[in-house]
Amino acid sequence: MAKLLDIESVVKNKLPQYYKKIPKFVFSFAKWLICQKEMNYILTTLDGKEGVEFADGATKILKADYKLVGEENMPDKGRFIFVSNHPLGGFDGISYIKVLGSKYPKIKLIVNDILMNIEPLRPVFLPVNTLGAQKRGDMEAIDNVYRDEETQIMTFPAGFCSRYIDGKIQDIPWKKSVIRQAIDSKRDIVPMYFDGRNSTTFYATEFLRRKLGMKFNIGLILLPWQTVKTASNKTFTIHIGKPIPWQTFDNSKTISEWTEWLRQQSYNLKK
User: Fold this and answer.
1) Which domains does the chain show, CATH number per domain?
2) Which pTM value belongs to this model?
3) Per-residue pLDDT band at 216 (split at 50, 70, 90)
4) Which pLDDT score, from 0 to 100, does residue 134 have?
5) Are strands 163-165 and 235-240 parallel, antiparallel or unpaired?
6) How many C-beta atoms surround the C-beta of residue 229 within 10 A?
7) Contacts of 183 (CB under 8 A, 6+ apart)
8) What whole-number distance in Å separates Cα of residue 79 and Cα of residue 82?
9) Alpha-carbon 232 to chain mean position
10) More confident of the two residues 231 and 246
11) Three-state DSSP class for 169?
12) CB neighbourhood size of 140 (10 A)
């Protein structure tokens, strides 16, 4: 039987130092806010399905879809790191699982370790801890996946979903580790661009959080709402660019400069 989402249990296990201080009505509001009922309906309906099959079923339940531009750029052979902007924080990840999983037998999507609570997607998730130090075992697991000859890797180098910056919706600067990993693992990079956006409420909340100097990522709580409510009944466009050989990232630029260059390659796909 499918393990259902329970935000109260997640907070209790992940942030025990805060759990006892949070009133029950706050959890009730949080369950509504993260669409726990709707998310659990998806989990129950797709009970027994995992990975790509689950992602495919979820898109059908949400009546959300995507169309591909540049599908011919997806290589048939080789080891790659697929990178993309991260506008939605939910449905874009589900879409990429379906896109890559439909072509490649083995894929891994690098995610916030909190998402490991979605058990049906664990087989395609590669977790990282964004709230603290990485565990040794997790670091070894990541290194093993990068060395694997058959697994394709998908990552959002920003680490967080897009927000309003300089008057437009865009990612924060991408993490330099994506370039280092490409060089170390000798994997070519395939840039992608997901054309979509979250609700105005999401961006307003994130703007307010930054203005108030709040460190807690409120936007993370709103992402399930964006997946269930905002992405439903919509069709998005995914742009796929040509593979970039890992040898491209030489000493002519710093790692930081190459990272920004790669980010621009992704955004240029929309043009």
Assistant:
1) 52-268 (3.40.1130.10)
2) 0.86
3) low
4) 61
5) unpaired
6) 15
7) 246, 249
8) 10
9) 18
10) 246
11) strand
12) 11
Strand partners, 110: 126
Residue 83 DSSP symbol: E
Q: Residue 200 belongs to what H/E stretch?
A: helix 200-212
Point out which residues pair with 67 in neighbouring strands. Answer: 237
Q: How many residues does the chain have?
A: 271
| Strand 65-69 versus strand 235-240 pairing type | parallel
Q: What is the pLDDT of residue 133?
A: 59
Q: Return all residues near 141 (Cβ < 8 A) that are at least 6 apart.
A: 126
Residue 270 DSSP symbol: T
- Binned at pLDDT 50, 70 and 90, residue 31 comes out as confident
Q: What is the pLDDT of residues 95-128, one digit of tens each?
A: 999 999 999 999 999 998 878 878 899 999 999 8
Cβ-proximal residues to 169 (8 Å cutoff; 6+ apart), any chain: 87, 162, 163, 197, 203
The pLDDT, as a whole number, for residue 15 is 80
Alpha carbon of 148 to those of 88, 141, 142: distances in Å? 29, 11, 10
Tokens matching residue 117: 């609570």
- Nearest CA to 258 out of 243, 244, 239 is that of 244
